[in-house]
């Protein structure tokens, strides 16, 4: 085993996602006992300013979301909080200036910084306190039972005389912020693996971090990747509850690389859950939806250059992730050979209408867009792709251009807007008892947006109620095991 791996955690107390990440790091540390985790607070506002973030230095990322995206994202955040069992109360004063709190953190090191970080997160995101107030910080330090007495006295003295905002603390905070920027940060939380020389962004990318750590530790037997993602239902117990059937709606447009990645996993879901899972394909015009809800037609053009560069890395991480899971499962699916389209954005009205005429074209057309770099917006190219797959391209395209099919696509796009979708891929889960008719389908989930939420989709298909936490699931499983021994 390679000793001495190092992980830097870049965070600001003002970010709720960094708060979530801080609750997950103790588990990561337990699973990797030789790992050194360095807590490096940074000024999130300074990072926003340096990267020309659209929300500005003093804003939150959600400030620039359109109302629909803000709603879907807010629901998703609440689901994450519940699922992970994280204590949380939205702070009505958010965003609060955290400069003083961050400088205070640089008055301590090691485990004491970890302890004080937890106290500050608790104050901001559970107790709704104003951590910009020196008197409030003084009370928090007094109340922090896990700090050593000597450390507590030192911090109270520094808070009393203003020394906690000395030149040393200012410099360390600025240097850590600059370091995060040099590493490619555009927000928090960020995780820098020193030995890999790579930054990962987001609490929902910790499975990528852990995958890299296991690989570098060289423990011998490869870890089951599906076990690295937080789940209510363990990956080896996924199944539809007895007596039930599930319908999964998959909303997509061929123009999205993320929808392509989500689509590549549908066959895996079908294998896991079997014949009692019905997957309903829901194609629609994403560009029209964006126009209707006030989103930019090209979302990648509305983010900072720093974030745009990271998104490219993130797409590569996901391609490798799904390919590695496919390999671990015995390669039942084709490898994902992702290639960015030379002509982007891809115009897809005729492509979507073609798949309404012949649903079996989904596989062919997704791969033409995102593996074969085919300009399917060209009717000539589209004709060639369909024809080479063995279908009557002339007939399909002719049918696709008829008013009835055009109206069907318009209706699906309107349904996407009326349903509350903000992007693709999006998922919705319905349930019914075995043997009931189509009228019995009952919606049992919120909108799940993003292929990176597939573990949530799998939990919901497996019967998760959308409210209980993973911690509750573990307690229940332990009680079941204990009962079995009696």
UniProtKB/TrEMBL annotation:
GO MF annotations, alphabetized: glutathione peroxidase activity; glutathione transferase activity
GO biological process: glutathione metabolic process
GO cellular component: a single term: mitochondrion
Domain DSBA-like thioredoxin per the UniProt entry, residue ranges: 7-213, 248-461
Classification via SUPFAM superfamilies: Thioredoxin-like (SSF52833)
Pfam families attached to this UniProt entry: DSBA
Name the UniProt record assigns to this protein: DSBA-like thioredoxin domain-containing protein
């Amino acid at each position: 085993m390679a000793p001495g791996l190092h992980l830097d955690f870049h965070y600001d107390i003002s970010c709720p996602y960094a708060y979530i990440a801080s609750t997950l790091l103790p588990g990561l540390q337990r699973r990797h006992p030789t790992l050194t985790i360095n807590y490096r607070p940074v000024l999130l506002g300074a990072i926003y300013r340096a990267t020309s973030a659209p929300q500005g230095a003093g804003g939150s990322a959600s400030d620039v979301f359109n109302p629909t995206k803000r709603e879907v994202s807010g629901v998703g955040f609440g689901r994450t909080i519940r699922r992970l069992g994280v204590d949380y109360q939205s702070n009505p004063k958010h965003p609060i200036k955290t400069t003083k709190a961050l400088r205070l953190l640089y008055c301590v090191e090691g485990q004491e910084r970890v302890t004080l970080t937890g106290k500050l997160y608790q104050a901001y995101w559970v107790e709704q306190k104003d951590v910009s107030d020196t008197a409030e910080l003084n009370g928090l330090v007094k109340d922090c039972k896990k700090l050593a007495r000597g450390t507590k006295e030192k911090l109270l003295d520094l808070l009393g005389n203003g020394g906690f905002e000395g030149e040393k603390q200012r410099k360390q905070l600025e240097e850590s912020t600059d370091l995060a920027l040099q590493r490619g940060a555009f927000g928090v939380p960020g995780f820098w693996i020193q030995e890999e020389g790579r930054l990962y962004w987001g609490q929902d990318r910790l499975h990528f971090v852990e995958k890299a750590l296991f690989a570098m530790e060289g423990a011998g037997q490869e870890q089951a990747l599906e076990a690295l993602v937080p789940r209510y239902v363990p990956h080896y117990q996924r199944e539809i509850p007895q007596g039930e059937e599930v319908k999964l709606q998959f909303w997509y447009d061929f123009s999205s690389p993320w929808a392509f990645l989500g689509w590549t996993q549908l066959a895996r879901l079908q294998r896991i859950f079997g014949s009692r899972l019905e997957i309903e394909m829901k194609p629609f015009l994403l560009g029209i939806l964006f126009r209707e809800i006030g989103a930019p037609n090209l979302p990648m053009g509305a983010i900072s250059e720093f974030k745009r560069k990271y998104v490219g890395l993130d797409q590569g991480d996901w391609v490798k992730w799904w390919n590695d899971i496919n390999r671990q499962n015995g390669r039942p699916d084709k490898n994902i050979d992702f290639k960015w389209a030379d002509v982007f954005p891809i115009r897809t009205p005729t492509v979507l209408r073609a798949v309404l005429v012949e649903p079996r074209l989904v596989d062919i057309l997704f791969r033409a867009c995102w593996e074969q770099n085919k300009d399917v917006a060209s009717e000539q190219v589209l004709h060639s792709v369909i024809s080479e797959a063995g279908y009557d391209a002339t007939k399909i395209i002719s049918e696709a251009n008829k008013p009835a099919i055009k109206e069907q696509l318009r209706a699906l796009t309107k349904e996407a807007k009326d349903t509350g979708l903000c992007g693709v891929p999006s998922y919705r889960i319905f349930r019914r008892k075995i043997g009931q008719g189509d009228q019995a389908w009952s919606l049992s989930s919120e909108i799940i947006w993003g292929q990176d939420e597939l573990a949530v989709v799998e939990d919901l298909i497996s019967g998760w109620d959308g409210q209980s936490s993973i911690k509750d699931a573990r307690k229940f499983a332990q009680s079941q095991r204990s009962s079995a021994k009696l």
